[in-house]
Write a structure and sequence with these properties.
By secondary structure, this protein is of the alpha+beta class. The protein has one domain. 28% of the residues lie in helices and 14% in strands. The chain has 3 helices and 5 strands, in the order H-E-H-H-E-E-E-E. Strands 1, 2, 3, 4 and 5 form a 5-stranded mixed β-sheet that branches. A hairpin with a 6-residue loop joins strand 4 and strand 5. It is elongated, with a radius of gyration of 32 Å.
Length: 229
């Protein structure tokens, strides 16, 4: 008995659905894996940036402490491991110390009249203060743009310098012989400002430190009273 082909039941319409389902699952798994990798990468970057910031902060702290040691030097000879001697540019007591600081910041020693600070304007770069950044033409007394070439001051080159004549910031250990830091892209440095305030003369210290990345920079300030009366 022959069956009329027109009377046969229709074939199942679900043939071939397995392949699209597998492809969909692969796409979902790929997206989830990509998001997981991205999340891990971002987390690692944030952690690394935070660690680098801490390195720069501690380097700036080291420069602040080094500046305090520098201010308290009482010898004119070169200290062990120091790049330069302070010689006689730093009288030992109180107000007599002030005249050796001037507006050119010789060997990191700055001094301006209070009226100069009163009229300082960061936006218009009027009477630039020495700790302002050198980037963006703010005319600070640092040694070059942080992202630019390394400082050419004596202690950046290492060894003993017989000249030691420079203006602006002082790299770590230049006058104190403190060991240079490792793991930083550039040695921290400091600037000292003589501020006459009545009987007691205060020195404002500004230091900046760098992390392993030259673009990671921390600036810190402190006020120090070397010889209180």
């Amino acid at each position: 008995m022959r069956i009329n082909p027109l009377l046969r039941p229709p074939r199942a319409a679900t043939r071939g659905i397995a392949l699209p389902m597998v492809l969909m699952f692969l796409i979902v798994i790929t997206i989830l894996g990509t998001l997981g990798i991205r999340h891990a990468t971002v987390g690692e970057t944030l952690t690394r940036n935070q660690l680098d910031y801490e390195v720069a902060r501690q380097a700036a702290e080291a420069a602040l402490r080094d500046a305090e040691r520098d201010l308290m030097l009482t010898v004119s000879t070169r200290l062990p491991n120091a790049i330069c001697p302070r010689n006689d540019d730093r009288p030992l007591q109180g107000a007599t110390r002030g005249p050796n600081f001037d507006a050119n910041c010789p060997r990191g020693q700055c001094r301006y009249e209070l009226t100069y600070y009163d009229s300082s304007n960061y936006a218009t770069v009027v009477n630039p203060e020495p700790w302002w950044p050198t980037a963006n033409n703010k005319n600070g007394r640092w040694e070059g743009d942080p992202a630019g070439p390394a400082s050419t001051k004596p202690s950046d080159a290492g060894g003993i310098d017989t000249n030691c004549i420079f203006d602006g910031s002082v790299p770590l250990g230049t006058f104190t012989g403190v060991a240079r830091l490792s793991g930083v892209s550039r040695q921290p440095e400091y600037i000292m400002e003589y501020l006459s305030r009545g009987e007691n003369s205060t020195v404002r210290i500004t230091a900046r430190g760098f992390g392993a990345d030259i673009n990671t920079e921390v600036v810190m300030q402190s006020y120090f009273l070397p010889y209180p009366k």
